[in-house]
Amino acid sequence: MSLLVIGTVAFDTIETPFGKTDKIVGGAATYASLAASYFYNQVKIVAVVGDDFPKEEIADFEQHNINTEGLQVKPGEKSFFWSGRYHNDMNSRDTLITELNVLADFDPIIPESYQDCEYLMLGNLTPQVQQTVIKRMHKRPKLIVMDTMNFWMDIALDDLLETIKLVDVLTINDAEARQLSGEYSLVKAAHKILTIGPKYLIIKKGEHGALLFHEDKVFSAPALPLAEVFDPTGAGDTFAGGFIGYLAKVGTINFNNMKNAIIFGSALASFCVEKFGTEKIKNLTAEEVSGRVQEFVNLAQFEIVL
Amino acid sequence: MSLLVIGTVAFDTIETPFGKTDKIVGGAATYASLAASYFYNQVKIVAVVGDDFPKEEIADFEQHNINTEGLQVKPGEKSFFWSGRYHNDMNSRDTLITELNVLADFDPIIPESYQDCEYLMLGNLTPQVQQTVIKRMHKRPKLIVMDTMNFWMDIALDDLLETIKLVDVLTINDAEARQLSGEYSLVKAAHKILTIGPKYLIIKKGEHGALLFHEDKVFSAPALPLAEVFDPTGAGDTFAGGFIGYLAKVGTINFNNMKNAIIFGSALASFCVEKFGTEKIKNLTAEEVSGRVQEFVNLAQFEIVL
Questions:
Q1: Strand pairing partners for B218?
Q2: For residues A12 and A35, what is the distance between their CA atoms, to the nearest angstrom?
Q3: Do B106 and B36 contact (CB within 8 A), yes or no?
Q4: Which bin fits A251, alpha (ψ -120 to 50), beta or left (φ > 0)?
Q5: For position A131, what pLDDT does the model report?
Q6: What's the superkingdom here (chains A, B) (predicted)?
Q7: Would you say the C-alpha torsion B197, B234, B49, B58 has a positive or negative sign?
Q8: Using CA atoms, how far apart are residues B32 and B152, in angstroms rounded to an integer?
Q9: Is CATH 3.40.1190.20 the right assignment for the domain spanning B2-300?
C-alpha cells in the first residue's frame, strides 16, 4: 500500500515584498510529497527533472521516506523552471519566466513497485499527463485527488473535463471554481462541478480558508490568521499533500475524515507560507505539526447547545 | 436591565442584480433591534425619523417587543433616505442618493426609562452622536458594542478614534480594519486597533465569515455558503444586533460567549440577505433561528483528537 504523488519537481525563483530567492527547489510534487510524508511513510513520486537537479535534493526526499524510483532524471536536459513575482497583497502574482524544459515531453512512467498505490495525488500538471497516470495504474486506486489551475481551463478545457470525470476529489481555488462552472455563487459552482464526476470538491480560498462540498453537505475550514505571509508558493500543493497524506494514514474515506484531513492540510500550508520555498516544511517536528493543528482547533471550535 | 440600540431608522431604495425596491424601511437601528429582539425582550431604540415614517412600521417594532419611547418623530421633517445599487458580485455597491434630512441635527435624547441599560449597541452613525449617547448614560453600560464604517474614517477620524476608545467591542469589515490600522495583515491590524481601547475586535469578512480578536486569542467564524444572496443591505447591522442580543440573553461576557454570539449574529445575517430589506428578519420563528444555528454548527465543527 502506498501514496503516489505525481507533479512537477522543479526550480523556482520567487520575488515577494519580503525579498527574492535564487533558484530554489519547488514544484507541486515536491511540496505535496513533503507534506504527505509527515503523516504517511509510503509516499512515492513520479516526476521528471534534468541532470541539473542536485543529488542532495533527491537525497532529501529519501530522508523524508519519499521513494524516488519514479523520479526520472534526463541526462543533458534541464529541469522545469518557473519565476514569479507576488504583488503586495500576496494574493496575486505575475509569472515572469516559464521554461518547460524536461516537462515538454514528460511521459509519466509508473515503476512496477508503485502499482500497490491506494492513494493517488495528481498534482497540478497537464490534464493529459494526469489522465495517463490514472490509466497506467493496473488497479484503480481507492482515492484519487486532483489539483489543477485556471491555466488548463484556458488552454485544455476538454482534456481537463475528461480527467476531472475520473477523480474522487478535485481541489481548485474560488476563482477557478467560478471559471470552471460559470457560476458566481460558490454553492452553485460546487453543485455544477460535482455533476462532472468528482464526489468531493474542495474550494481553496487562501487566507479565507477552504470549503469542502460533498452531496448536500458542506464544511468550512478556516485559515490561520498570520501576521506575516512570507511566500505563498506551494501552499496549495502542501495543502493537498497534507490532505491526502492524512487520509492515507487513517485509511477510511468519509466526510468526517475529509474534514479533519482539510485541517491537517491547512496546518501544513500555514507553515509553508512562513518561509521561502520548502524551507519550513522540510524541517518540521511532529510536535510543531500537532501544535499547529491544535491552533486550528482553538481557532474554529465553539460550543453551542441548542 | 435593557439593551439600548442607537442608529438610523430610515428609508432605502435598493437595486441588486435581482431587482429594485420602492422606498422600504431600513437603517442600522432597524436591523439591529429586530435581530436582537429574537434573543432578548428588553430592546429599546434611540433614533429619529420624520413624520413621513409610517405608524405601522413603528407598531411593527412594538410587536417585536422593541421599546420606541426613544424614537423621535420630527413633525414636518423627512426621514433619512439612502439609495444604492449593488454590483454583480454583491460585495461592492454605489451610493446613488443620500438625504440626511432629520439626521442632519440628530440630538440623541435618552429617555429616563432607558437608564437601566446594561447593553449598548452603537449602530453606524456619526461618531460624535455615538459618543454623546455614551456620555448621556448615567451609569456606564456593562457592554458597549460599536459599529462604524470607512466613511467616518475618511471625514471624522479624530472623533472616531475618541469614540472607539470608549467601547468594549468594535465591529468593522476587513477593508476598514486595514484602512484604520494602515496594516494589510489582519492580525497586525487587529493588534493595532485593540491598542486604541476596545477589548474585542470583530472583523466582518462578508461571505468569508468573521474574525474575533481578544488579547492573544482569535476565533474564526464561517459564513453560511448561500446559493443566492438577494440583498446584502443591513447584514452587518443584523449581525451586530444578533450578537449583542445573544450576549444580553446569556448575561456573561467572556470569550466563549462572544464566539457563540458571533455564530448567532451570523445566523441572523444569513437570513437577512435572503430577501430585500427587513422582509426576512421581521418574520422568523424560533425554530428557523435554531435550525440555522445548527447549520452553522454542522458547517464548522470537526473532531480531532490529538
A1: B213
A2: 18
A3: no
A4: left
A5: 98
A6: Bacteria
A7: negative
A8: 19
A9: yes
The torsion defined by the Cα of B251, B253, B256 and B261, in degrees rounded to 10, comes to 60
Q: What DSSP element (H or E) covers A274?
A: none
Residue for grid cell 435572503: B274
What average pLDDT is seen over chain B? Answer: 96
Task: Please give the helix or strand (H or E) that residue B119 lies within, else none.
Answer: strand B117-122
pLDDT at res. B90: 81
d(Cα B173, Cα B179) in Å, to the nearest integer?
10
Helix (H, G, I), strand (E, B) or coil at A27: coil
- The cell for B181 is 490600522
Calculate mean pLDDT across residues B268-290.
97
Nearest-neighbour CA in chain B from A28: distance (Å): 26
Cβ atoms B148, B121 nearer than 8 A: no
Name the A residues in 265-294 with CB < 8 Å from any B CB: 290, 293-294
Planar angle of CA B43, B45, B48, nearest 5 degrees: 165
Instruction: For residue B35, give the nearest of B189, B264, B210 by alpha carbon.
Output: B264
Residues, chain B, total?
A: 306
Cell numbers 505571509 correspond to A229
Using 50, 70 and 90 to split pLDDT, how confident is the model at A265?
very high
Quick one: which of B64, B61, B42 has its CA closest to B116?
B42
Burial class (CB in 10 A: 0-12, 13-18, 19+), A52: middle
CB B127 within 8 A of CB B147: no
Query: Is any Cβ of chain B less than 8 angstroms from the Cβ of A46?
Result: no
Residue corresponding to grid cell 503516489: A4
* β-bridge partners, B219: B212
User: How far is it, in rounded angstroms, from Cα A291 to Cα A19?
Assistant: 28
- Domain boundaries defined on chain B: 2-300
Contact list in B for residue A227 (CB cut-off 8 A) is 185, 187-188
The per-residue b/e assignment along B31-63, b for 16 or more CB within 10 angstroms, e otherwise, is bbbbbbbbbbebbbbbbbbbebbeeebbebbee
Amino acid, single-letter form, for residue A265:
G
Give domain A2-299's CATH number out of 1.20.810.10, 3.30.70.860, 3.40.1190.20, 3.40.1400.10. Answer: 3.40.1190.20
Residues 72-101 of A with CB under 8 A from B: 88-89
ipTM of the complex: 0.94
